Prior knowledge:
By secondary structure, the chain is mainly alpha-helical. It has helices at about 10-30, 30-45, 50-60, 70-94. The chain starts with 7 loop residues before the first helix and ends with a helix.
Amino acid sequence: MAAWIPVRRLRIAYPFVIVCCGAVVAMTVDVRLYTLSLLGLTIGLWPTRRLLTLWSHEINRGVTRERYDWPRSHLVFCVLCVSGGAIAASALAH
Length: 94
């Protein structure tokens, strides 16, 4: 996902955040939930990757918008993928 958003700070922070969150989840909850939810988020953001890249290029050039309009279908798809990952993780836990 970090490649879709070409902001240097994100590329540096993204792996660190993923590893740290994964370590916390591994100690407290279930790794399957974290892994499958993150996989669902990656799949869910796939249709929006071009918009994310475009917006981050605009931000790098100094263009600011009042709103970033996400297509509703992309948002619904993302929520369904993350929810599906969480449900699959709970199914695997039993």
